[in-house]
């Protein structure tokens, strides 16, 4: 893993604006950090009411609204069989329900009141951990990190679009 010491992320970005300057060590360092970051999504919080799969499904349903199974699968980038199993589990637990939406042929899935309550409870636990981590960075550094992640995601989207053409 690369150690950038006390260098600001801005100086790192300036150094690697030339694609030829992106060496394998830098790619490995990015991969390491992305894996560490993705593990945060799988953290089990004390007093959580939901497992991670139910939380992700309810996050979509509460924050976005009712969705079809296909839409949930696309958003979470999971196989349809996995989504079917996870959504059926959430329905069996009373966290979600199927509904007919006027104008749509496919049935949608929406959060129940109990599912929304459990989601909001667990989202609060996760938000507290994020708030503490961002507070440790301070507001200016936190804003820079968030902006950098947004820029990285935008760059990944553009690169993926070019590859898919």
TrEMBL record:
<feature type="domain" description="HTH marR-type">
    <location>
        <begin position="53"/>
        <end position="103"/>
    </location>
</feature>
<protein>
    <submittedName>
        <fullName>Winged helix-turn-helix transcriptional regulator</fullName>
    </submittedName>
</protein>
<dbReference type="InterPro" id="IPR000835">
    <property type="entry name" value="HTH_MarR-typ"/>
</dbReference>
<dbReference type="InterPro" id="IPR036388">
    <property type="entry name" value="WH-like_DNA-bd_sf"/>
</dbReference>
<dbReference type="GO" id="GO:0003700">
    <property type="term" value="F:DNA-binding transcription factor activity"/>
</dbReference>
<dbReference type="InterPro" id="IPR036390">
    <property type="entry name" value="WH_DNA-bd_sf"/>
</dbReference>
<dbReference type="Pfam" id="PF12802">
    <property type="entry name" value="MarR_2"/>
</dbReference>
């Amino acid at each position: 893993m690369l150690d950038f010491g006390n260098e600001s992320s801005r100086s790192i970005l300036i150094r690697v604006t030339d694609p030829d300057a992106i060496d394998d060590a830098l790619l490995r360092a990015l991969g390491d950090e992305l894996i560490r970051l993705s593990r945060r999504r799988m953290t089990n919080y004390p007093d959580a009411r939901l497992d991670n799969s139910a939380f992700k499904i309810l996050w979509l349903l509460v924050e976005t609204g009712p969705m079809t199974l296909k839409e949930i699968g696309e958003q979470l980038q999971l196989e349809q069989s996995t989504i079917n199993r996870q959504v059926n589990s959430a329905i069996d637990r009373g966290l979600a329900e199927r509904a007919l939406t006027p104008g749509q042929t496919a049935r949608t899935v929406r959060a129940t009141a109990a599912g929304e309550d459990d989601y909001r409870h667990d989202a609060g636990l996760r938000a507290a951990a994020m708030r503490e981590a961002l507070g440790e960075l301070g507001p200016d550094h936190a804003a820079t990190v968030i902006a950098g992640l947004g820029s990285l995601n935008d760059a990944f989207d553009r690169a993926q679009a070019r590859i898919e053409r």
